[in-house]
């Protein structure tokens, strides 16, 4: 989704001997709408990006040699089993092992057990980030499934990957009599025209996978269904820490212009910083770059920093690009983990071709808490903080289960019981 007149994309990097939380690379100006589609909902395209006019640049300084890594073992197994010894800095691995065990365990229902019952006949509209994106479409379909179960009429509208498109879809929905609106992976602060129209019409807005602010202020939503962004990042850090025995040498790449990707990054960098024997070798921001450009960025980073053992990516498409770059370089000793678990990333984990784990918020199950929050809004009840089921996926899991890799769990049963729905 190239944007006319888009500024050149730049990527900067820093090399660290220890995680430092006050220094971040700068991100050149990019269109929020285009990045939002990538970060929050995924794409059917091969690269997941549009080309920009300039290739990414790196500023990595001379890196430590492989002898500095503290470990000669390669992260190729993708297994959730790991060593139990103390880490390289003398701290115990037990807290990270416990967190990893919790993240890889199949979820259970932790939604509300009491609340208002849905009123049949409600008319709602779901505005997706972009209809062509698989994650957004799956979320919208889930909302329709949950809405159908309570007798609601659900219309799915295309936000077209832009604030203008999303606002126009909201206004169209309001004019067509929608009583509630769901935003999927859309930054509500960027669509004030649509949000103001909904507020003026008394139409509640619930968002999912957007990390929007809840409240009555400008651009704020009635409720946000969390994709557990910080957990998505910290779970990957726990995996790296445990798999390396507490000596992980990592590179981090994230989009700095979105709340969701920033929260994923904060979760990762905060957790990896608790590992005294681990090191963030390279910490970079990136933007809307093409597959070729991002491949060059990965290759350049690894060439300049041969001690890197693990790579954190905040967006699944770019994790898959990084995994492919590793295969092209013959670097089977480096593992990639990303957020969203789109099919190419999961397949790479299965095949052992670069990806070793991914953080999976099951968007195909997002409709149930979303419909519950709209039910609360219609009943005049205060919003609750609800979330989408989460699980960190490893090779052990994806080899024996099928999508959405929740070991058969669905929140539908819990919500139907709450609503008094028997079918």
UniProtKB/TrEMBL annotation:
Keywords: Signal. Residues 124-362 form the Periplasmic binding protein domain. Gene3D superfamilies: 3.40.50.2300. Its main location: other. Residues 73-86 have a biased composition (Polar residues). Residues 1-39 form the signal peptide. It is found in: Cell envelope. Residues 41-72 have a biased composition (Low complexity). Residues 1-25, 41-93 are annotated as: Disordered. GO terms for molecular function: carbohydrate binding. InterPro entries: Peripla_BP_I, SBP_2_dom. GO terms for cellular component: cell envelope. Belongs to the bacterial solute-binding protein 2 family. This is Substrate-binding domain-containing protein.
């Amino acid at each position: 989704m190239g944007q006319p007149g888009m500024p050149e994309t730049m990527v900067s990097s820093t090399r660290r001997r220890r995680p430092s939380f006050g220094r971040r690379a700068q991100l050149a100006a990019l269109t929020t709408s285009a990045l939002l589609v990538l970060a929050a909902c995924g794409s059917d395209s091969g690269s997941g990006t549009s080309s920009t006019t300039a290739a990414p640049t790196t500023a990595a300084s001379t890196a430590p040699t492989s002898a500095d890594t503290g470990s000669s073992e390669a992260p190729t197994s993708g297994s959730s089993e790991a060593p139990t010894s103390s880490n390289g800095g003398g701290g115990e691995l037990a807290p990270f092992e416990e967190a990893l065990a919790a993240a890889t365990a199949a979820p259970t229902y932790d939604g509300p057990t009491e609340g208002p019952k849905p009123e049949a006949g409600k008319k709602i509209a779901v505005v997706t980030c972009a209809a062509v994106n698989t994650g957004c479409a799956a979320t919208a379909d889930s909302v329709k499934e949950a809405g159908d179960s309570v007798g609601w009429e659900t219309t799915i509208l295309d936000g077209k990957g832009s604030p203008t498109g999303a606002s126009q879809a909201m206004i169209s929905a309001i004019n067509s009599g929608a009583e509630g609106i769901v935003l999927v992976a859309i930054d509500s602060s960027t669509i004030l025209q649509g949000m103001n129209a909904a507020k003026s019409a008394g139409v509640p807005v619930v968002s999912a996978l957007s990390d929007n602010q809840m409240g009555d202020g400008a651009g704020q939503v009635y409720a946000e269904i969390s994709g557990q962004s910080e957990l998505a990042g910290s779970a990957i850090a726990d995996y790296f820490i445990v798999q390396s025995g507490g000596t992980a040498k990592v590179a981090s790449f994230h989009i700095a212009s979105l709340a969701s990707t920033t929260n994923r990054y904060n979760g990762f960098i905060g957790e990896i910083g608790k590992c005294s024997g681990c090191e963030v070798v390279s910490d970079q921001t990136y933007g809307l770059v093409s597959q070729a450009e991002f491949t060059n960025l990965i290759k350049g980073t690894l060439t300049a920093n041969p001690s890197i053992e693990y790579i954190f990516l905040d967006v699944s498409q770019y994790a898959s690009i990084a995994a492919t770059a590793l295969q092209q370089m013959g670097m089977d000793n480096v593992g990639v983990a990303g957020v969203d678990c789109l099919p190419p990333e999961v397949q790479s984990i299965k095949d052992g071709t670069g990806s070793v784990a991914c953080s999976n918020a099951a968007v195909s199950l997002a409709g149930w808490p979303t419909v519950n929050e709209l039910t609360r809004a219609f009943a005049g009840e205060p919003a609750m903080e609800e979330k989408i089921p989460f699980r960190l996926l490893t090779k052990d899991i994806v080899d024996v289960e099928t999508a959405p890799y929740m070991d058969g769990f669905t929140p539908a049963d819990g919500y139907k019981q709450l609503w008094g729905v028997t079918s």
